[in-house]
Amino acid sequence: MAQIPTKEMELVKNLRGIDQKEWYVPGHRTCAGCGPALCYRLVSLAAGENSIFLGPTGCMYVANCSYMCTPFAYAWTHCQITNGGAVASGIEAAYNVLIRKGKYKGPLPNIVVMAGDGGAIDIGLQAASAMMYRGHDVLFVMYDNESYANTGIQTSPMTPYGGKTTFTPPGKMIPEGKKLFPKDAPQLFIGGHPALKYVATASVGYPVDLINKCRKGLNYKGPAFVHIHCPCPKGWLYNCKDTVRVAKLAVETGFWVNYEWEKGEYVYQHVPKTYKPVKEYMKGQERFNHLQEEHIAKMQAFITAKVKAPGKPIEVPVLGPREEA
Amino acid sequence: MSPLYCEKFRIPKHLEIADGAVVPAPVGEQPMMKTGNWRIERPVIDQEKCTTCLNCFIYCPDACWHLDPKSEKMVWNAIYCKGCHICVVECPADALRTENELNFKGGVARLDKPY
Amino acid sequence: MPKETYMAGCAATANGAKLARVEVITSYPIRPYTGIMMELSRMVAAGELDAEFVHGEGEHAQVSVTQGASASGARAYTGSSGVGVAYAMEVYSPISGGRYPCQMAIADRAYDPPGDFGSEHTDVMSCSNQGWILGWAETPQESMDNCIIYYRIGEDAKVMLPQWQVQDGYFVSHIPNKVSIPDQEVIDEFLPPYNCPHALTPQNPTNHGPQIFPDQGPAIDLQRAQAFLNTPKVIEQAIADYNKAVGRDYTPWLEEYKTDGAEYVFFLMGGHCRTARFAVDHLRKKGAKVGMVKLRFVRPWPTTQVCEVLSKFKAVGVIESQTNYGGAMKGGELQHEVRSSLYDSPKQPACCSFMAGLGGEVISLEEFYNMAKILEKMAKAGKAEQYVYWVGFDNGI
Amino acid sequence: MADVFEVTIWCRGVIQDMEGRHLSLVLANAAAKSGKFVQAWDNYADLPDRVLVPLRKYCRISDEEIEMRYVYENNNPSLVIVMEEVIVKGIDILRGATKGTALVVNTKRSADEILAVIPNKDLLSAIVTVDATGIAGGTGLEALDFLGSEGGVEAVSVGVAVSAPLAGAATKVCNLFSLDNVVATAANKAGVKEGEKTAVVKKL
Q1: Which residues of C touch D45 (CB under 8 A)?
Q2: Distance from the D56 Cα atom to the nearest Cα atom in chain B, whole angstroms
Q3: Which residues of chain B carry a pLDDT beneath 50?
Q4: Which of A17, A254, B20, B106 to pair with A100, CA 20 to 30 A apart?
Q5: How far apart are CA C385 and CA C377, in angstroms?
Q6: Region C3-247: CATH code
Q7: pLDDT above 90 (res C114)
């Protein structure tokens, strides 16, 4: 069968290397200081002109896309919160056959799903997993703001332990609000999708790294998954000017770990020499304000275990809850 | 069809919708959604202090900072800046300060609709 | 030269899809439609059909893949049965609202319970108001032809709507019958390649499916309503063209069988029409003034045609093959549509539902005879004694 | 159909969402105490609510039962209350208003400074300025609680921060709710009184 032509995306070295042409243009209704919107813009800068984006229902659909007011300069389609992976599969399959038959002239478009945490690993998990299993040449981005933010901040499987949402309000019987620990999204996909060759985690606090990871994912023939940490001023209850600060603090405390998984190998980025206590990350966000010391210690223990073992141990000192206290 | 059905409906201009609600992709900006009136305080740049490190460019969710290739200076977009001040926090050169929008004469697109 | 052969509905329908040169096919197994996908996957593997074959992870995904493919400008094809049709429900309206003219072949099947795989019309009929073109085939031949005709209707610029091409599970889908396969060149001329005017492409970027404000809601609904008003003319033209090109004699809306001089008729759709024809033949020989009216499209519903045709008779027995629990007539869905169509007619026949063929149950000739007896009484009395008869369980039937 | 007096409150998305909603609730409850028919509701068509977006909350008061309850917004406000001063610059807050409308603004600035950025100020009968943020303390921009949004039940008492002094100030230009009834309704009673006391009314 004939090779489907694709276009290689160049990696950038620094901010000067990024083309200033915007693809996620100004003029959208997302929050001031919106982390997911920043993520959308950075992924759009990475993918550029030859792209088709899919927006499963979520904040980045509803807040962006009033009639005649879409901010997407590339081809974009809404899909249901359930079926981002499936609609993307259909688009990729269509382009394969149209290019093969000579009906479409040009390289295979960059097909990018911009799913929220709900659209990626909760209600949308089945479609995402099947798309990766089938090996479609699609970049699946999960912009993770750790809640169903569009509908007014309800808990999702990514809401951290102790996070206050409108479905997990703290009360006398449930003092920590949310009792469960979140899913590990990249490991879910790495663990069982042989066609998947590239998985990465990124953060809006580290934009060059984020852009390069998206481009690497796009350059792989076949599915790629990038999980992006996107602080949400509305849902996490912090001042909107602190979005990038919160994102960086997450990495500095080990709450968030940036890494790449490429053909079975892990490479870590932005690993601090010493992790700050996770309390420093949590205290800036009102969603954690109700927590007591014991809850924070439980969170620290979880984070400590996580940074020690996301696939492969890291050789850096990790503060435990006791040492921190 | 029977004449009991309306064959062609009168849809007022402002409610006309393309087949499938498909709309053309915007170029450069989305002028139907100006967001400058979200701003309480605007970021003000001190070009002397600015090192054009591009932090404000890259961290703006609303793409409101760009490097003018001719003057090599940062240019701010008053029409869309929502005043989140991520740029102010992330400026390593202390070149950005904030000032209340009412202290300026122009700069905000006055809109009939809030969204 | 057309190829004459024996085929079950599944294989015949797959041949229809091949003749339509479908480009993206999405499968998920469920009995009884599965055979369509088995045959198509064989054709793709053998190089007989150049298409992408995507194994969906469920019906919801199948229909979603089809949406993406159709939005990108490929002729997209999928199918399902029974509970699978229900599982994909979320995606039907976005497809018709997005005006993506893909096709879904359905071999109908009962919902659970009873948990069997017999034919019943409840699955698609319970989704019938999602903005898809919908019609039943009586034979494998008709199912194959409908596949091709529906694409031509749906892809017409004045229509741009998706289609449910339905055949009865097992009865039509699994029992071989005589099928004549037209030449590819004939079909290529009848059905030009799909041209999506608003395809998702980087070369002319568009944004699909943005949110609207509440006051724009009626306008977007109206747009689909208008498309449905445009559809009948397109259907009539497409069927006339197909009859001419392929040598068939399909009527677009209602086929009348032995209705000359008939006082009462069976009104039904799908595979059971075949048995009904023989029942009518036998009854006619005994002097009964009975006939049959076969419905070819449920959406768009041929209101005026139903009114004109059924007004000629004294009694109409609607054979339902699906349920509408607690509805206006407490029987099936079809009687509602039939009675609505007749509401303004100066001559109204007596009308009742026969609940028959549920859960895949066979409708025997004897049962048709029994129904005819009731219809004869109704014709004489000029009114229905009962609105709904559960065939086999009810007074005198 | 009886006359319906419409009150539109402008505030900043998310960070003043609760206070804005509370202000509409306080005014409606206060008017109800004197036997009026009232309605108070949240923005819906423009959801999700977003940080800093100019956001509206609505209140309606009538001597008779309100017939058109199922609407999204007020079309002809007779009283407009602005919870954050810069909103007057970027939005036509008097959209749909007819001559004789009153305006209440949370600001430290003078009425003239505010009027300078309102091109259609001839519609106004009076402008009231009050430093509600100063009275309530804090920045007036803190997001407090979401539970009362989306048709939910308020988790905190109604009228604790900037909504209290603004409600007090509003009594100076509207006689459909009395100061006593506003004080009885709002949690921050001192704030209401202080708002009423320090509000500056400029008749136009």
Answers
A1: 213-214
A2: 9
A3: 1
A4: B20
A5: 9
A6: 3.40.50.970
A7: no
In a domain, A298, yes or no: no
Say whether residue C211 is in contact with chain D using an 8 A CB cutoff.
no
pLDDT tens-digit series, residues D174-187: 999 999 999 999 99
**What is the pLDDT of chain D when averaged over all its residues?**
92
A20 to B67: CB separation less than 8 angstroms, yes or no: yes
Residue percentage of chain A with pLDDT more than 70: 94
Residue D139 has pLDDT above 90, yes or no: no
Among A205, A118, A188, CA closest to A153: A118
Which of A97, A101, A126 comes nearest C57 by C-beta? A126
Domains C3-247 and C254-390 are alike in CATH topology:
yes
Nearest CB among D50, D146, D152 relative to A29 is that of D50
| pLDDT surpasses 90 at C121 | yes
Segment 68-107 of chain D within 8 Å of chain C by CB: 72
Pairwise CB contact (< 8 Å): A240 & D52: yes
Contact C65 A89 (CB under 8 A): yes
Only one residue has tokens 């062609």, namely B8
Q: Do B21 and C206 touch (CB under 8 A)?
A: no
- Nearest Cα residue to D57 out of D114, D99, D18: D18
A59 close contact with D: CB closer than 8 A: yes
Q: Are strands C76-80 and C52-55 parallel, antiparallel or unpaired?
A: unpaired
Nearest CB partner across the interface for B66, out of A20, A41, A244: A20
Asked casually if ipTM beats, i.e. exceeds, 0.90, the reply is: yes
Q: For the domain bounded by C254-390, which CATH number is listed?
A: 3.40.50.920
pLDDT at D173 over 50: yes
Contact between residue A290 and residue A268 where contact means Cβ atoms under 8 Å apart? no
Residue A300 belongs to some domain of the structure:
no
Contact of C325 with chain D, judged by CB distance below 8 Å, is answered with no
Alpha helices in C127-216 (DSSP H): 140-154, 184-190
Q: Please give the pLDDT value at position A289.
A: 93
* Structural domains of chain D ordered from first start: 4-203 (3.40.920.10)
Tell me which residues of chain C, numbers 73 to 92, contact chain D at a CB-CB cutoff of 8 Å.
none
Residue of D nearest to B33 (CA): D53
Residues of C within 8 A of B7 (CB-CB) are 229
Q: Are C62 and C28 in contact (CB under 8 A)?
A: yes
Q: What end-to-end distance do the CA atoms of chain B give, in Å? A: 42
Q: Do residue C209 and residue B1 have CB atoms under 8 angstroms apart? A: no
List the single residue in D14, D51, D147 with the smallest CB-CB distance to A169: D147
Could you state, in order of their start, the residue ranges of all structural domains in chain C?
Answer: 3-247, 254-390
Give me the CATH code for the B34-115 domain, please: 3.30.70.20
Tokens 């009462």 — which residue?
A: C264
pLDDT of residue A7: 80
Model pTM score:
0.94
Q: Are A159 and A95 in contact (CB under 8 A)?
A: no
Rounded distance between C-alpha atoms, residue D8 and residue D60, angstroms? 9
Task: Give the tens place of pLDDT for each residue, C330-374.
Answer: 999 999 999 999 999 999 999 999 999 999 999 999 999 999 999
Per-residue pLDDT tens digits for A209-236: 999 999 999 999 999 999 999 999 999 9
User: Closest-CA residue in chain D for B106?
Assistant: D89
What pLDDT is recorded for position A191? 86
D118-D121-D123-D128 Cα dihedral, nearest 10 degrees: 90
Judge contact between C78 and C37, C-beta under 8 A.
no
- Chain D interface includes C213 (CB < 8 A): yes
Number of C–D residue contacts, CB under 8 Å: 3
Task: Note down the domain range covering A164.
Answer: 15-292
Distance from CA of C224 to the nearest CA of B (A): 9
Query: CB–CB of D173/D166 below 8 Å?
Result: no
Mean pLDDT of A144-158: 95
Mean pLDDT rounded to a whole number for chain C: 96
Q: How many beta-carbon pairs under 8 angstroms link B with D? A: 54
Q: Judge whether A164 lies within some domain.
A: yes
Q: pLDDT per residue over C241-288, tens digit each?
A: 999 999 999 999 999 999 999 999 999 999 999 999 999 999 999 999
Q: Any idea where the domains of chain B sit in the sequence?
A: 34-115
Amino acid at B29: E
